[in-house]
Design a protein that fits this description.
There is one protein chain. The protein is mostly helical. It has a domain of 77 residues: Orthogonal Bundle (Arc Repressor Mutant, subunit A), CATH 1.10.10.10. It is 37% helix and 7% strand. It contains six helices and two strands; from the N terminus they run ααααββαα. It has a two-stranded antiparallel sheet. The longest helix has 14 residues. The protein is globular, with a radius of gyration of 18 Å. It starts with 18 loop residues before the first helix and ends in a 44-residue tail after the last helix. The model has no long low-confidence stretch (mean pLDDT 92). This is Helix-turn-helix domain-containing protein. InterPro entries: ArsR-like_HTH, HTH_HxlR, WH-like_DNA-bd_sf, WH_DNA-bd_sf. Keywords: DNA-binding, Transcription, Transcription regulation. Pfam families: HxlR (PF01638).
Length: 153
């Protein structure tokens, strides 16, 4: 399947050379990643997204429009043929590790010890293991073992 390229929201990127800044320009508002999260969890209709997030209808309309225009969601006719539904594109599915990393960070830092929270499980019902980036040689990577190399124009 061909890879989906996200379309730029406009030529005025916050920091044109930084992939983190560009990503935040695309999905860094309060609601966009929650819509993506729910699409990953099977939400397809406007009503489902609204029910799951509690987002105001006008804001949800705006986020669905933007996520579709930016190439993260696509609209298609629902199997019933009676309405349109939203589905993740390849670019939207590629956000899975981002959402997973945010989830795992939240599990470690946004809840008190022993406080109940949802758990992401695989198809067998087993909790998804912690993700940990590693270098080409298999050694763990973190902020102390990496740096950004600026690219000249």
């Amino acid at each position: 399947m061909p890879r989906t390229t996200v379309r730029a929201p406009d030529p005025d990127w916050t920091d044109p050379d930084c992939p983190v800044a560009r990503t935040l320009d695309l999905v860094g508002d309060r609601w966009s990643l929650l819509v993506i999260r729910d699409a990953m969890d099977g939400a397809r209709s406007f009503t489902e997204f609204q029910r799951r997030t509690g987002i105001a209808r006008n804001i949800l309309t705006d986020r669905l429009r933007k996520l579709t225009a930016r190439g993260l969601l696509a609209q298609r006719t629902a199997p019933s043929g009676r309405r349109r539904e939203y589905v993740l594109t390849d670019a939207g599915r590629d956000l899975f590790p981002v959402v997973l990393a945010l989830r795992q960070w939240g599990e470690r830092h946004a809840f008190a010890p022993g406080e109940a929270h949802s758990v992401l499980v695989d198809r067998h019902g087993i909790p998804v293991p912690e993700i940990a980036p590693v270098g080409a040689d298999g050694t763990p990577l973190d902020a102390d073992t990496t740096h950004v190399r600026k690219v000249g124009r």
